[in-house]
Amino acid sequence: MTGSDYYVPAGIAAVALAVKSPSFWRTWHSPMSKSIFVILAASTAVFVFSAPPTIERVNRVTGVPNFSAPLVYCILTCLSCASLVLVIHWRGGPQETLRRHTRMWIAATAAVIAALCLLFSLSDVPVEQQRSFDTFYASTPYVREMILLYLGAHTATSLVVAAKCWRWARELRELQAAWTHWGLLILVCAFVITVTFALFKFLAIGARWAGTSAWDPLSTEVAPSLAGLGVGLTTVGFLVPVVGPRLESMWLSWRAYRAMEPLWRALEPFAGRGKRMPIHPTSSLEFRAMARSTEIADRLLNLAPHLDDRHRAAAERHARAHGCTPDAAVVFAEAATIRAALLAAQSAGAAASGQVPGRACAAVERSAPTRAEVSGTHGLARLSIQFSRIHHSDLPVDVRGPEDH
Predict the structure, then answer these.
(1) Helix, strand, coil percentages in the chain from 3-state DSSP, rounded to 5
(2) Is the pLDDT of residue 71 over 90?
């Protein structure tokens, strides 16, 4: 692996860190924010300091051969600890329990880091190894123990995090918390991969103890690739529950904004003289959808003198008679009433006549709303969809019987 193989994922983690930095400053008191910051910072640092060019530079600046080895081990240990602390707080529970578990894992991490530094200071590693430190010094006193300690701590933490995420994901599957559920599953995969990373390291070291270097590529080629994949998936897994709902909200707002366009345009003659809500290029999709729904509501108020409650009631009865659910019947009745009011306004009260075929109800059924209220951004979007079906078809909109005239 070359330097770019390390610097590219480091750059990706650094971008994520830069994007999240404003929120870190606003919520720095939160243990979750601190944990995410450490995870992103450690992910960036572990790739930067694992790259051969950086290893050479650090060793030369410090004047200590292979100083980068314990440095990278300590960063990996901090990354594992931050991941576990984040999952603990993410899961929630009594504050005292959370604080106790957090202090316990931080103390254990500090002890491991101190032991790593002590073992390295007692060792003798004069030959610089930029890529094969673990296997080259696999049998060296103190270094051997240092390598086993960092791999064992990394493996144990990864197994604990993976087990916690798996149990929680199974609980959330029943609660239908989709984004958190998928984020946890990604984290399970990420930490299983990091366990595999440690397994390949153990195999290569064990082969060295057996007197062969034939398995060294498992440590120098395969394991670093798995580490990069694991860290990348870890970052994605923690960001999915945060970014996912935001993207979903933007998508739903965009769909509602587009869906409301037919009704919004049809009601344009009733816009009145009021000042429209200003829409700027930087306005969010949620604001755009809210502004359009507000304008539709205002225009419906101006159309109110032409709306016929008898027409609305008859249209709803007609829709139910043709098999529509109550919610779908309400949407159909509102759309038909608005369409009839627009025709009445255009022809000075001359409404169309006739009956609506039953196939109109089938079209409503396929997109029936979940609630009876036809209001708000998404309610008006459903109303606009039904209005567009009536408006662009040859279906008559007057469904009143002789007794209603």
Answers:
(1) 75, 0, 25
(2) yes
